[in-house]
Amino acid sequence: MEKREQLYEGKAKKVFATDDPALVIVSYKDDATAFDGLKKGTIAGKGVVNNRMSNMMMQLLEREGVPTHFVKELSDRDTVVKRVRIVPLEVIIRNVSAGSFAKRYGVEEGIPFDEPTIEFSYKNDDLHDPLINSYHALALKLATKEEIETIKKYAFKVNEVLKAYFLTLGVKLIDFKLEFGKTADGKIVLADEISPDTCRFWDAKTNEKLDKDRFRRDLGGVEDAYREIFKRVTEGK
Ligand code: TMP
Ligand code: ASP
Which of 82, 113, 147 is the last residue of a domain? Predict the structure, then answer.
């Protein structure tokens, strides 16, 4: 399968057409941004880690009953995925306080929750991805009621599967962001990526951050963190 014309370029990935109208090729870049693109940089090797790690997570989730866009890994940076219409929602699940949750509600980072939380942001760069609830999403016609219910069900399932999986690697899954898409035949599938760009991973023993927060917060050791989480995922420990 070969790349045809470029359909889209985002902050971290490019999307190409293929000869099959139902399939596209996603190509992962090393470019990194944070704070709505205000902070820009590159993380050497990030595209490879995110592509390969995301594909492993998507295949694990498929086996556990969550439909995804994944079709086939082509190379270190390129993957064939189903062509979908992205539902313009960022779906965020949290297990432990961190990031914007800690800031918004004035609590410390690192406090475990009794139950995971879910929140939605409206994916809209001009509006800076405002936080919305599911009634707002319905009012804005971003998805139907049934689709929102399906998305919630899949998001919590993803959390159960990934939380347990990462714990076996000595990693706490603090929070993460998912995006869903709709296929031509109207099915909701997990899309975008699952990577250190979109998840917070803390070492279970030391709470060391193994994710993009090292870049966002200028903590140093960014490449090492991506390498370390990738090593654990590929070596299974
Ligand atoms: P937050 O605490 O900044 O709201 O982030 C929650 C989770 O979502 C965290 O794991 C990082 C991820 N995330 C993205 O993947 N993309 C984004 O644009 C933002 C703001 C967060
Ligand atoms: N990548 C997002 C942006 O550039 C935010 C983030 O991941 O922190 O806005």
Answer: 82
